[in-house]
Structures are given as C-alpha cells and as structure tokens.
C-alpha cells in the first residue's frame, strides 16, 4: 500500500527521504511526493511518475531542509492525480502524509467546510491536515493528539508544521509505523526497510501511540496523553537482498532465489532430533485436532496446498480460510484448534483482523507463519515461525510462497509425528525430500528456455485456463493468479474434475489450457480431463512429471519435469507457472514488479 518516510536530521534530509521512498516504491506507486520546511514554510514536490522522476524535480526545485515528510501513494480515496498526491497541506502551514483509510472523513469534511476550510483534493487525508490545523495552538503534539481522538478507521501519519521547524509527529492506529533512531537524527517510516541506510535501532509503535520527535529526541505518548516506554530493537542491516544485481526484474531474481530461500527456511531440519518449532512445540502441538489457516492472495493458496498435507501427514482437519471472509463469519470454536495466519508481510489488514477475531472468539493457540519477524501479526500471535525468504520486492509473490510451503510442510510433519500418524522412518524420508528440495527446484529453473518458448506462443492470448487436481489444484489457482496479476491476461484456475461443470464451454482452439500433472494417484483421472480438452480442440500446455508418459503431440505441448517428488511436488510445479507468467508479462511489456492497481502489502481493509 502507501509508504511513509519522515524525520528530523542535522543536515538536508531530502536525500534520505528519497532513498526511503525508493525502498518503499514497491508498496505503492500511483504517485509520490516530498515536503520539507524551508525558509519558514513547507515546500513540496509531487509527481505521478516514479521516485526517480521525483528526484529530478526535487533537484530542479532546490528542495532543502532538515525536517520533512515523504510518501508513495496507492490510491484509495481519489484518483491518482497531483492534487491527491501526498504530502497534503493545510493552508501552507501543516503538511501530512497518511497511510490507511479514515472512515468518517465525509462528516469531518462537512464540519471543516463550515469552519471555512477549502478542500483541494479528493483524499480522506485532507481532513486530517485541516483538523490538525484547526486544533493548532502552538503545540503540534497537542493538535495531533486532539485530531486522533475524532478519527475513525486505520491510519499511520507523519506531520510537520511551519511554526515548529525541528519537530515531526507520527501517530498510528491499525496501519504500521516505526520510529528509526540514527546517530543525531530520528525518523518515522511505515517499514524498517525504508530506513535501512539511516537507522539501526527501531521502536515499533503500538496502536494509539503518538511519536513526538524534536531534533533527535523521541518521546512516545499513549492515547491518554501519558509518556510511555517502548522497547528499542536493533535490526541488523538488510543484506543486499534488495539489490537487483544482474536480473531484469525483482520478480525474476526472487524466482531464482527460491532454492536458497527454501534451504534457509527448512534446511536446518536435518534429523528427527531437530525441533523446527523450538521450545514452544510441546505446548503448541499437544492435542491439536484441527488447523485453521488464515491468509489472503498467494498466502491463501499456500494454506490451500497445505490443507492436503495436514490431512494426509497429520490426520487432522484443516481449513484454509480467506481472511476477509473469515473475519465476518460466525466462528465456531472447537477444542484443539491451532490458528495459523500465513503472511509474507505480517501486516495485511484482513489477516491481522482475522487473527484478532479468532483470538476474541477464544482461540488461544495461534502460530503465525511470516516472512517479517517484527511484523504486527508476529507480535499479535502467541507463536511464530519466520520464513527466511529475505525481502520480497516484486508485488507478485514467489519466494514467499514456496518458503511458506516449506514451513507448512514442516508443521504438518511435526504434528503428524506427535500424533503417531507417521512413523519415524517415514518422517526421515520426508525430511530427506525436504532437504533435497533446493536441488529439485534448481532443476525446474533450468527448464526456463522451454517455458520461454511457451511464453512466445501465449503472450498474444487474452484468456487462459489452469487445471490441477488434489494437492495441485491450488497450484493451478496460483498459476492463474500469477498470470493475471502481471500480464493482465484473464486466467482462471480450476480443479480439473470441475471442467465439465462450466469452464469446458469456454474451450475452443483459441483457449490455452495449462495443466499441472504430477504422477500421483489422480493421474489417470487427470488424463481423462485432458482428453475432454483435446476433444474440443483446446490448446494444452502440460507441466508433467517425467514418469507420467505425457508426450507432446498435435494440440498438446509438454514440459517434462523431474520424476514425481511426492507430497512436495506442488512446490516444484509452481516454479514453472511463475516463470511462465514472468516471461509472458515481459513479452507483453507490462511493469512486472509493479503491476497496475496492485500493492505489495495491503494494509487497508
Ligand atoms: C497482496 C500481494 C500478494 C499477497 C497478498 C497477501 O495482494 O500483492 O502478493 O499474496 O497481498 O499478502 P501477505 O503479505 O499477507 O502474504
């Protein structure tokens, strides 16, 4: 979603703000802007182009000041337009950047209009700026505090004021905001990653907190106006994971990082003596009868894939719930339920709310599987398993997905052993397969040239069907999601057995049908489904295990995968679909890492 960087330094803050915006650009990119206090007034530069263009404009405008706020926007209220880009001003005295949604902005806007405020944007943010202005009597902290009392909804804000040139105030409710501490400076950001070059120590603000930064000093105030102590955490410098290196896009880089990411996530579990869930395991896993997984987007598909593992390896009931649906349903509590939120970012608003809802319904056993150790979900949850994918920049998730799968497989295996569902000998075989996964993934990545040849044939299409069965049905869903997200080709994933209940009507010689075909117990059923497509002239593209006997023939192209890889087979097949979506998108010339209308981390409902 949107990104915030702000701060007070001893020198010109503009280069730091721009560096932070570049790091945050993957989160939101409809527009961006920066404002500093310069010569007794806030001055701003905004653009509908990327941060690189903003940098040029900022230089041309000679923006220079030691106190500033900056923002990348993903539009919610108001179209992407310069007037709606942040920072938003009130009467050239107050400048605000804001992430989130103010739900009562319409009524607030009316009352502010009656007080004579003129609105220059369609944003909900402008009510925050004018409210702060209307409350301002020489103390920005008091004005922000009084403003937050009337705001409803989710927000993270950073505010500067003409009359207090060495001060920036931050506040959060629902949306993430951190304070970064430098040597002689202090910053605010929506993500520690934004401050990788200027801070090593961070304070994670809690809901309702207000941060008051004056020069390099920071005070945290709670909703009652009392100063509170918050832990300061050291965060190691982000590795160069975030550099593009020789790759053309982050998505491509992240696809190729998967062997390493999976090895980092699960590679330490060599033998039955290693307990992947640490000291928490006995309390967490004893008596588990049911696993309730919560997630959105690709993380939901990880849950759908793992559902089969929990049933097969652990013999427990498993539910994969879409967070935005689950949070508004009537949850029926059952004994022995482990709630497992799954999230790359750990900040997705719906999954966080679904976790809180489950907790409010009495679910105490919560284990978040997440790629960001300091995220809201990890902090909210009783236990956490941190995947080791490293920063994922491409909006379309790839390495986060496969590392989530590795973590979920370990969880299913661990519960299965505790319940006596699988023997030690069987567990050793599964662990060996997990350990061999990075090499197996490399061998799929080596098929990239064949997949590129398919992409040449497919990039002119406007529709595609993806079929799979059993453990591979979620891989068909994920293959379709990847293609539609980044190439804008309409794609649908279906369980192959459902073909004749509707989608078969779409099959003509103009319809490409992608199939994920492992050599599992459903292979013969899948082959029958494939024949149904052949008989209607559909163009088949089959990702088939080497031992399935699928061979290329008129109307059917086949890429031979390695031999069947057991229950971990979905992890291999998804790589082929990721590469396919990537190369189709490249040929269509889309913005692969920042697809239109989408955001990396969806921190609004
Ligand atoms: C967005 C991203 C997806 C991601 C989903 C869930 O839609 O574009 O790539 O799968 O959010 O995000 P999370 O961080 O909770 O996994």
From TrEMBL:
GO terms for cellular component: cytosol. The active site is at residues 2, 600. InterPro entries: GATase_2_dom, GFAT, GFAT_N, GlmS/AgaS_SIS, GlmS/FrlB_SIS, Ntn_hydrolases_N, SIS_dom, SIS_dom_sf. Its EC number is 2.6.1.16. Residues 2-216 form the Glutamine amidotransferase type-2 domain. It is an enzyme of class 2 (transferase). Keywords: Aminotransferase, Cytoplasm, Glutamine amidotransferase, Repeat, Transferase. GO terms for biological process: amino sugar biosynthetic process; carbohydrate metabolic process; fructose 6-phosphate metabolic process; protein N-linked glycosylation; UDP-N-acetylglucosamine metabolic process. Residues 280-421, 454-595 form the SIS domain. SUPFAM superfamilies: N-terminal nucleophile aminohydrolases (Ntn hydrolases), SIS domain. The keyword Transport does not apply. PROSITE patterns: GATASE_TYPE_2, SIS. It catalyses: D-fructose 6-phosphate + L-glutamine = D-glucosamine 6-phosphate + L-glutamate. It comes from the Bacteria. Homodimer. NCBIfam families: glmS (TIGR01135), PRK00331.1 (NF001484). Catalyzes the first step in hexosamine metabolism, converting fructose-6P into glucosamine-6P using glutamine as a nitrogen source. This is Glutamine--fructose-6-phosphate aminotransferase [isomerizing]. It comes from Paraburkholderia humisilvae.
């Amino acid at each position: 979603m949107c990104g915030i960087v702000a701060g007070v330094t001893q020198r010109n803050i503009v280069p730091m703000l721009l560096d932070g915006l570049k790091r945050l650009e993957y989160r939101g990119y409809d527009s961006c802007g920066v404002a500093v206090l310069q010569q007794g007034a806030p001055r701003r530069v905004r653009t509908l182009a990327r941060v690189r263009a903003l940098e040029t404009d900022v230089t041309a405008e000679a923006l220079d000041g030691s106190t500033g706020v900056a923002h990348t926007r993903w539009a919610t209220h108001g179209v992407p337009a310069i007037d709606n880009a942040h920072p938003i001003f009130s009467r050239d005295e107050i400048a605000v950047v804001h992430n989130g949604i103010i739900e009562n902005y319409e009524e607030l806007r009316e009352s502010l209009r009656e007080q004579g405020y003129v609105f220059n944007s369609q944003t909900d943010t402008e009510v925050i700026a004018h409210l702060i202005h209307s409350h301002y009597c020489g103390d920005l902290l008091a004005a922000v505090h009084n403003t937050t009392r009337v705001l409803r909804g989710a927000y993270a804000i950073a505010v500067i004021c003409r009359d207090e040139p060495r001060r920036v105030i931050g506040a959060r409710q629902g949306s993430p905001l951190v304070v970064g501490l430098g040597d002689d400076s202090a910053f605010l950001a929506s993500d520690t990653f934004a401050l990788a070059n200027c801070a090593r120590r961070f304070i994670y603000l809690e809901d309702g907190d207000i941060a008051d930064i004056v020069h390099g000093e920071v005070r945290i105030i709670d909703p009652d106006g009392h100063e509170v102590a918050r832990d300061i955490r050291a965060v190691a410098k982000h590795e160069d994971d975030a550099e593009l290196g020789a790759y053309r896009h982050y998505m491509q880089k992240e696809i190729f990082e998967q062997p390493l990411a999976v090895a980092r996530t699960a590679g330490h579990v060599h033998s039955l003596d290693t307990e992947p869930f640490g000291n928490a395991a006995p309390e967490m896993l004893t008596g588990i009868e049911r696993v309730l997984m919560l997630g959105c987007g690709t993380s939901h598909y990880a849950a759908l894939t793992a559902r089969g593992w929990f049933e097969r390896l652990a013999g427990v009931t498993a539910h994969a719930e879409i967070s935005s649906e689950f949070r508004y349903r009537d949850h029926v509590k059952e004994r022995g339920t482990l709630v497992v939120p799954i999230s790359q970012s750990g900040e997705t608003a719906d999954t966080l709310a679904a976790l809180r809802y489950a907790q409010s319904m009495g679910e105490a056993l919560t284990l978040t599987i997440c790629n960001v150790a300091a995220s809201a979900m990890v902090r909210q949850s009783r236990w956490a398993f941190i995947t080791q994918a490293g920063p994922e920049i491409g909006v379309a998730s790839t390495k986060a997905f496969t590392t989530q799968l590795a973590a979920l497989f370990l969880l299913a295996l661990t519960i299965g052993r505790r319940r006596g569902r699988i023997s030690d000998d069987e567990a050793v075989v599964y662990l060996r397969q997990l350990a061999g996964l990075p090499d197996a993934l490399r061998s799929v990545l080596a098929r990239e040239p064949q997949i590129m040849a398919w992409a040449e044939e497919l990039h002119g299409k406007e529709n595609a069907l993806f079929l799979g069965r059993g453990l591979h049905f979620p891989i068909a869903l994920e293959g379709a999601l990847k293609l539609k997200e980044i190439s804008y080709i309409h794609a649908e994933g279906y369980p192959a057995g459902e073909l004749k209940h509707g989608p078969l009507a779409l099959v003509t010689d103009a319809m490409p049908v992608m199939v994920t075909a492992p050599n599992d117990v459903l292979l013969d059923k899948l082959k029958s489904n494939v024949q149904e497509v052949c008989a209607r002239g559909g163009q088949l593209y089959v990702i088939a295990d080497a031992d399935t006997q699928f061979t290329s023939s008129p109307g059917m192209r086949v890429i031979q995968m390695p031999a069947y890889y057991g229950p971990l087979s979905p992890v291999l097949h998804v790589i082929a679909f990721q590469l396919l979506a990537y190369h189709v998108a490249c040929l269509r010339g889309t913005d692969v890492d920042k697809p239109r209308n989408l955001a990396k981390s969806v921190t609004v409902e």
